[in-house]
Amino acid sequence: MKYLVMERHESYVVVLDEQGRFFKVANMDYFPGQTLTKVIPMEDFVEKRKKRAVFFSLFLAVVLLFAFGIYFFFFSSSGTDSVVFRINMGGEIAVTCDRKNNVTKIEGKNPEGEILAQDVDFNNKSIKTVSAELLEKSVNMGFFGKDEEIFLSIEGIYDDDNERLESLGDFLEDYAEDRYDIEVEKCSWEEYSFEKS
Amino acid sequence: MEDRYNELIEMVYKAKNNSREADNLVRLYMGFIKSETVKFLGKDVTMGEDDELSIAMLAFYEAVLGYSRWKGSFVSYARLHIKHRLIDHYRKEKKYRGIVSLDTESQHEDTPPLIETLEENKSELEEFKALSDTKSEIKEYSTELEGFSVELTEIAENTPKQKRTLNACFKALEFMKSNSRLMDNFLKTKKLPITEIANNTKVDKKTLERHRKYLVAIILAYTNGYDIIRNHIKGINPKKEGESL
Fold this sequence. Notes:
Chain A is α+β, with helices and mostly antiparallel strands.
């Protein structure tokens, strides 16, 4: 490739190559009109900046994706989505939990349940702790007597919901067996309502 | 001290868009450029003899174009850039070591340098005349470009980087060459008929607008009177269009 020197400046010369392109190249004491065969081209800052911008955008996208992934894995999927346990132990109560089984809400579903749900401190407590406290309260208030059944049901959308129900049932059986001789019935709410009526 | 620093920054920013200001800045900082080169090479350097000094000067100009306030002191930035550029040059040159230069002096006093032993195709007089003609044609071309408010430095910055874009510009050139009415009008009004070119060549109007200065330069070269420049341009290879230049 041959380059025709078109203009001379202190630090560079403008050359025209055989493809009709103009370039700035190092001025090795060249003069206009001279034909060159080897040149040292100037760095293309615009192109360099563009490449750098693309690299940073990609890097930022990867970091954001990674951050979102972490968020969904640790917080979203295990923290904010909820399931509702329906418990009948003298009063009917709906206990809402997050995916870590921490209680986020308690609601009474019949008059006794409303009394039981009142003033229960459930902050940072698991469903097992709160269920045990509710059971104690129900017994103390005379809503729940000997030989009665605790009913448990769950409204959830996760694959491990049944395991969670089993686990709570097992816990309450272990907890109550020694003192109250209680049976824990695990069936759907519809089946339970039908049996009661 | 603060005033001098701000004055330098102001000069750098002016030099970014003005080639004359850039030349002045390079002249003003020639001592600094030379000292950085000497520091790198460990020996004295002379303008016109040492490639490293020319490269350091180019690096200083590159530093002017690439500098922005948030990068800190300009002098430190330029010093670092000169150093990196000289290291790059040193690495590239390393590859070609062992190849004998045509200017190398012979070891025997009676034998002339290698370049002088090569057969001359042209006489010195012919060469001088050709060079003189080329110089005056380039001068005339630059003066005419000024009439279009375009400088050669700006054209170099506006030249397409992709072969696809360069090919599009050559399409525009071919269209202009085939239409004498538009060519005459272009020379008379000093305006590029971008809409007409875009409609007739199917080249995107934005591409033409983005490379307006380059188009002016290349179309002007194909008007009457610039035979040497025209003969120098052999065009692009259309098979490889799309690849980066």
